[in-house]
Amino acid sequence: MRAGIVALAGLLLLIVGLPLWALLAKGFENRDGQFVGLANYVAYFSTPALFASALNSFHVATVSTAIVVPLAFLYAYALTRTCLPGKWLFQGISLIPIFAPSLLPGLALVYLFGTQGFFKALLGGGSIYGFDGIVIAQVFYCFPHATLILVTALATADARLYEAADALGASKLRVFFTVTLPGAKYGLISAALVVFTLVITDFGIAKVIGGNFNVLATDVYKQVIGQQNFSMGAVVGMVLLAPAALAFVVDRLVQRKQVALLTARAVPLIPRPKPGRDIAFTLFCTVVSMGILAILGMAVWGSLIKYWPYNLSLTWANYDFATFDANGWDSYFNSLRMAAGAAIFGTALMFTGAWLNEKTSGFGAMRSAVQLLAFLPMAVPGIVLGLGYIFFFNAAGNPLNFLYATMAILVINTVAHFYTVGHLTATTALKQIDPEFEAVSASLKVPIWRTFARVTAPICLPAILDIAIYLFVNAMTTVSSVIFLYAPDTKLASVAAVNIEEAGTTAAAAALCVVIVATSAAVKALHLVADRFLFARLQAWRRR
Description:
CATH architecture: Orthogonal Bundle
Oligomer: single chain
Radius of gyration: 24 Å
Strand order of the largest sheet: 1-2
């Protein structure tokens, strides 16, 4: 077991720690690789255009967070605290943006409000390209992430608190501000920090609809791809890492202070029908859902239009990707292979790693190191990790140099990027298993690996499936973490969509995004069916 912990720590150091160290070191070198101290950082902060990008990123992230969190809170409140008809439908619609690459809402907004957009006149001479477009697209992209957190925060409540408030004659508004909001405050803080981090680190939306409004993520891309200035790219990457890491640390500190809202004597709050309230929230959720469907529907329609906006007849020609990109459909199949590899390898690593860290007795220092390395990716933007992979794996003296520009490096990078959530999911599932299983197995002299295979893994099968699907969907939609790492024969669908959009063929880029959405949604649907089947066959004991 201890050897396994050491091996796990070494592997996490290799795929997370060392690439970030390489990125940090690169920021102190010039283009020739000579040490120049803080010269690059001084140059960055003394260049008005570059420093303005940092301010732009904070501005966009702040405004987007201020819009998304209240919308998501009201939507989550409707799903958990009202008798909303068709809750399952509204909940399903709210998850749609998760299945899409971040550039999809940008493409849809181009069709709606771009230079030739249907509703261009509504902008009154303004432009969708820039701050406004980025914020609108980010609201679409980040909404489900905030909603999921707030649904969890609002799902548990003690009915006795509300009964006491009613008995004291408190108004509905007073109850909301003194009971409901305090009960959900940790969820609100977490949702705000998650949205802020997603916005400030996103690359796809700003790339498509940012126009001349520069942000940190696109600056990294321009420095590395456009100017081949890797040292300055590393500096911008570290600047981008700072707010993301700070938000992560604050979120962890907030979660540590969270206390249980339900005690053994608590009475679960069950919503009661109130026609006025339920109708109001139904209308609200309908409007939000229509907005989400409008963005997706516009992307789908745009992908089927022959020549926007002059010839609106329908065609499948935009799905003939070989016409627009040398890789054709190969990019899509590369994404499938990479996503499958990340799901298989990543799930095995995350679950086994969490099991080793939970079940190993003693060895506190090494287990703490594993925990730190497992949490680190959550604080690292994908584009920053991808840049670190360039500097580390592409180094001439690195014996692992052969991995660079292969499918393997894409799989490894994706697993590293999304490691934290999978690790937390596995750890949560393992903590629910009574330690007596291992104690009884040890007393019967049953090998620990057999207990793992025959008891632990089957009990945790739902969590294992959740990790696999999480990795698959994120691997299909990720852009920023792999934008620097692909070779011509390993280009992914999400990257191909960016390249096709850059070439000006928006319809084909939208078509490729639609294919990604359809694939991710189909796999999630299969997961739900499989989960229900496995629960009925293998998890029946939970109902006893």
